[in-house]
Amino acid sequence: MLRYWVGLNMVEGVGPIKLRQRLERGDSLESLCAEFKAPLDLADQQITAAEKNNIHILQLADPKYPEILKQIHDPPQVLYLRGELVKGETAVAIVGTRRASAYGLECARRLASGLAGCGLTVVSGLAMGIDAAAHEGALAAGGRTIAVLGGGVDAPTPYCNANLAVEISKSGAVLSEYPLGQKPRTWSFPRRNRIVSGLCRAVIVVEGGEKSGALITARMAMEQGREVMAVPGRIDSELSRGPHSLIKDGAKLVETIDDVLVELNMSPIKTEASTRPPAVSQLTLEEERILVLLGREPKHLDVLAADLSVPGYTLSALLLSLEMKKAVQQLPGQYYVVL
């Protein structure tokens, strides 16, 4: 039976809605596979590869399939899962731009850490920027996070976040509706976003333009009856246009995790402990000097090396140590910022 579902899932143009309609009309899976020329030989290969790589393939009737995802208009007929899903878990999505500012990264990381510390699961798309920061924040708090991919779970993209995907799968889950080995396509990310919002009770947007993928996710969340929230930003920043537009349209303005918890009818946290970044380990004198000079605004490696009067290779080693201690964050282009 599973091979029929997997085979039909590999046929372009045969989506969840069309398949559901035909099944409701009385067509059998076997007849649909024959009609649409489903590649059952490839489906068998997919199932074998999944078993070898500890990847679960869930179809809609599987007991492990998320109940909340079944409620959307077009739930995936097949889900590839690396890791584990928790039945009945309450999840919140945190999404935003790939080209995030230091402020946006810090907001995403702190919100995710605080929410995960309250027992909520943080969902995002593993992209660079806000998505990665949200996953990292949840992991830093020892919580659960789910990454929903636009390609196969066996080769997560972007490749720079492949190690992050491995860490996520150890305590959370990496999900996709796309077959193993499939690379992301332009259209696969917007379709992926309906799963991100569909898994959650709420979607929080942290930075993004008015036509960004994060706003696509927010619109899908509205259509699915989910709560939509947004973190405000600088009024002169292009990255604030998306969240500010959502707030103008009635989205909940989020400043702390309490704003999220209240909207979900959960008890607010009376202490700020859960919103604080992870404690920094004991620092050396050289590391303390770096933090003093670095500050909250991104600074390039070469500029920092000149300020400290140390060779670039020495500074790189010190910055790596600070990253491991969760004290600094490396941004694209060899820029660094204090967490």
TrEMBL record:
InterPro entries per the UniProt record, alphabetical: DprA, DprA_WH, DrpA_SLOG, WH-like_DNA-bd_sf
Pfam families noted in UniProt: DNA_processg_A (PF02481), WHD_DprA (PF17782)
Gene3D superfamilies: 3.40.50.450, Winged helix-like DNA-binding domain superfamily/Winged helix DNA-binding domain
Family: Belongs to the DprA/Smf family.
Domain called Smf/DprA SLOG: residue spans: 57-264
Protein name: DNA protecting protein DprA
Organism: candidate division WOR-1 bacterium RIFOXYC12_FULL_54_18
GO biological process terms held by the UniProt record: DNA-mediated transformation
Domain DprA winged helix: start-end pairs: 276-334
